[in-house]
Amino acid sequence: AQSVTQLGSHVSVSEGALVLLRCNYSSSVPPYLFWYVQYPNQGLQLLLKYTSAATLVKGINGFEAEFKKSETSFHLTKPSAHMSDAAEYFCAVSDTGGFKTIFGAGTRLFVKA
Amino acid sequence: EPEVTQTPSHQVTQMGQEVILRCVPISNHLYFYWYRQILGQKVEFLVSFYNNEISEKSEIFDDQFSVERPDGSNFTLKIRSTKLEDSAMYFCAGTGEGGSPLHFGNGTRLTVT
Fold this sequence. Notes:
heterodimer; A: 113 residues; five-stranded antiparallel beta sheet; 0% helix; 56% strand; B: mainly beta; four-stranded antiparallel beta sheet; 11 strands; 50% strand; globular
């Protein structure tokens, strides 16, 4: 069975500081991994995806994530936080069949001026 | 860019009543999903639908729930007899290929009183 664990329900950073949101996954088969962002009163939007082509994945808005199989991790980073990055971030894992994508509990990112 | 459209945006109903939540997926998508997000909590998988039948469902998706794609465009979630604990945001999502990122609608906020 697949599962996703996001460490830290809330993360607070100063504007311009490094953003690091942690995600660990469990999967019995090579997974597809994703990060989604949710702004208030909206659906989830894809930030980036890992599908085994490259371990370092670049996404939109300056975010990137690195797949580390040995650590079963897929942490999301951004070198310099912007106020507009304040949102809820969800890590997700999907099986290759695509019938089920499981989401982590989410991490709310606060950005201080 | 094509969008997933959900209606209504907000539905208020009394306990015990039936509700139908509607979604118009992106036209070339083949896999369809419903997710639920109780206020402040994680995004929970309810059901996936492919080739006009349920592919997988969670333990949440009990006999009170059903899904249909009646006319090849709309995708509906029916809750037969709503309970207070069904109050949540319900998201429809779709994708064209198994394991690909999901495209989400903006959700229907269901309030059961």
